[in-house]
Amino acid sequence: MAQTQSGAEGMQSLPALLQRNATQYADAPAYREKEFGIWQCWNWAETEKEIEALALGLINLGVQEGDFVAIIGRNRPYLYWSMVAAQSVGAVPVPVYQDSVAEEMAYVLGHCGAKYVIAGDQEQVDKVIEIQDQLHQMEHVIYLDPRGMRKYDHHTLHEFSHVQNQGRAAYDEWISDLNERRAKLNYDSTCVMLYTSGTTGKPKGVVLSNRNVIESAKNASNFDKLTKSEDILSYLPMAWVGDFIFSVGQAYWCGFCVNCPESADTMMTDLREIGPTYFFAPPRVFETQLTSVMIRMEDAGTLKRKMFHHYLAHAKKVGGDILDGKPVGAMDRLKYAIGNMLVYGPLKDTLGFGNVRVGYTAGEAIGPEIFDFYRSLGINLKQLYGQTEATVFITVQPDGEVRADTVGVPAPDVEIKIDDNGEIHYRSPGTFVEYFNNPDSTASTKDPEGWVATGDAGFFEKDSGHLRIIDRAKDVGKMADGSMFAPKYVENKLKFYPDILEAVLFGNGKDRCTAFINIDLTAVGNWAERNNIAYASYQELAGHPRVLDTIQEHVETVNKSVAEDDMLSGCQIHRFVILHKELDADDGEMTRTRKVRRVIVADKFKDIIDAMYNGEPKISTVTEVTYEDGRKGSISATLDIRDAAVVPVAQKMAAE
Question: In whole angstroms, what is the distance from residue 287 CA to residue 293 CA?
Fold first, then answer.
């Protein structure tokens, strides 16, 4: 309780929380980073000194209060320090997705008018240099990794460690200025600006205040009883609000340790070594891990495979109830304990989830089968519903009330209402200040009373008070016969299968539904190797008859499941095609947070959609693609269009 009061009265900025942590938790680990295979560690006292040196260096470089400082790179302690150092001098940090192409980066940097960039490595610096002629306001670029940078013009290019060293050297000169700037910070000061993923258009700059971040972090931490003893692995994009609230907001509020993996390639190994107690991941990560588990079990011996599936079936039956503290028979508990010793425990350790006390997934709806799989193993995985504009938290799931088909109850201090059209509105201490330089969008999203329109359709269950999300309000439509069209519901069922990576459903205003499917190259490639099927590319494997047969079986199984839902039974898939390329953010088909841009996909592949609805068995198409180096090219393919069996709704009703 004392912590809550100090947060409300004295701790009104992240730099203030840093000062508290450096005093109260001085020797406790604040950051770890794996470099060259070895974990480096900084405690809170050391972290405060590193951030102070950088802040002094930024003042020495000319950073003024109100300036925007873009931060680009993978998750590293230095870049997290950069955010707090920018805040300390009264500037506004703007994290940018590190996999953004130069054009996307130019929009964000130009829109916010960033005068300074702190970049992780040569790749990011090169992108900034490429677009420099569009960024007339740009003054200085600071780079972290000096490899490859020796021959660059260093008049406005500075090494991170040099800026810190200059700050330390100028301590006496600038420390009073730094203290004055930090003292000015309060709950209404801007904490960070995060750009939306831009699912329907250009990304918008969401301005979040210290009040938004600290109150949201405090409430969520109290809700899940988080302490300074937690360990998290920070691997998600730093430009995403989820990573910011977990790795910065909650980390500074609670004083727990943020662990940064060596690279994306070593993430799973690093996850196992850290064994986080608090873990957050979008559904894609859990889907990928499940796919990996299933692939490995296919390669296991007969006895091991049978034991795995036997105990997994038992876990599916009672694991969730045991986790929630519900009554379970003694024999079932004994069998589960044996399964935990032989299967669940080793599997959790292999995944890196052996110590997870609280796990969350959000960003997209997770398939119920995937969700239940992890909970059946004893992993306290929960769903939350949130947005960048809410500083993440809108609803959360209390322990003991966790279900796959709802997103829980309103988060602490959050109010929710549903309008006549079924759209969800909320207001809370986390409600964003504004969209930067976009008053029209701000006014259309947030009304004068502070209510924010989410763009999602849903309803509260009368009995439980839990919120159920149907789909994005703009994506929910009607079939030609008037029945509801909700694509996400069906897509998530398809994505439960390890060999389906992505699915996009069409059918709004139509008499039947059709679908695009992306196969998972890792899972299907493994299957092909086991069956001695040679292939040279994704396109060749995607068009293989046996792959098409397998996906057709999945589609028809999903149709049977969808037919059981009276409200959505019209969303069964009549025809589908396996696309000849993976949907890609570089091609504009997905956002950087892996959300499908439906309008763009529908427009780009219009010829394929038309062929599916016209009853054609095949379609020849040419598609423009973007290569890793930014060059454009095209790929051509002839795709098979498959018909899938559906369950007639009238027949189903008659049977009932």
Answer: 10
Handedness of CA 129, 134, 136, 142 (dihedral sign): negative
User: Which one is the CATH code of 2-261: 1.10.3720.10, 3.40.50.12780, 3.30.300.30, 2.60.120.200?
Assistant: 3.40.50.12780
**Comparing C-alpha atoms, which of 21, 592, 428, 2 is closest to residue 250?**
21
The C-alpha atoms of residue 77 and residue 30 are separated, in whole angstroms, by: 9
Is there a contact between 533 and 451 (Cβ–Cβ < 8 Å)? Answer: no
- Tokens matching residue 120: 């992780």
Reduced to 3 states (helix: H, G, I; strand: E, B; else coil), residue 626 is: strand
Alpha helices per DSSP H over 340-458: 345-351, 368-376, 439-445
Residue 326 CB contacts under 8 Å (≥ 6 apart), including other chains:
none
- Is the pLDDT at 164 greater than 90? The verdict is yes
Strands, sheet with 618-626, edge to edge from the N-terminal-most edge strand: 500-506, 513-519, 573-578, 632-643, 618-626
Could you give the CA distance from residue 344 to residue 362 in angstroms, rounded to a whole number?
Answer: 24
Q: Specify the DSSP element, H or E, that contains 16.
A: helix 14-24
Tell whether the model's pLDDT for residue 243 goes beyond 70.
yes
Predicted confidence at residue 602, as pLDDT, reads 92
Query: Is there a contact between 465 and 416 (Cβ–Cβ < 8 Å)?
Result: no
Q: How far apart are CA 441 and CA 467, in angstroms?
A: 26
Q: Each residue of 446-487: pLDDT tens digit?
A: 999 999 999 888 889 888 889 988 766 667 778 888 888 888
> Taking every pair of C-alpha atoms in the chain, what is the biggest distance, in angstroms?
84
Most confident stretch, 121-135, 165-179, 302-316, 639-653: 165-179
Residues sharing a CB contact under 8 Å with residue 270, sequence separation 6 or more, in sequence order: 34, 233, 235, 259, 261, 262
Is the fold of 2-261 the same as that of 283-472?
A: yes
Report domain extents, the chain.
Answer: 2-261, 283-472, 477-655
Virtual torsion, Cα 581, 583, 588, 593, nearest 10 deg: -150
Compute how many other C-beta atoms are within 10 angstroms of the C-beta atom of residue 96. 27
SS (H, E, C) 256-293: CEEEECCCCCCHHHHHHHHCCCEEECCHHHHHHHHHHH
**What is the per-residue pLDDT for 4?**
40
The per-residue pLDDT for range 304-337, each reduced to its tens digit, is: 989 999 999 999 999 999 998 899 999 999 999 9
Architecture of domain 477-655: 2-Layer Sandwich (3.30)
Q: Residue 468 is which amino acid?
A: R
> How many Å apart are CA 609 and CA 484, to the nearest integer?
20
Question: Is domain 283-472 annotated with CATH 3.40.50.2000?
Answer: no
DSSP H/E element including 360? strand 358-361
Tokens representing 427?
Answer: 């207001």
The DSSP call for residue 92 is E
Min mean pLDDT across 82-86, 169-173, 250-254, 563-567 is at: 563-567
Instruction: Report how far apart the first and last C-alpha atoms of the chain are (Å, whole number).
Output: 55
| pLDDT digits 0-9 by tens, 77-93 | 999 999 999 999 999 99
Q: What is the pLDDT of residues 51-81, one digit of tens each?
A: 999 999 999 999 999 999 999 999 999 999 9
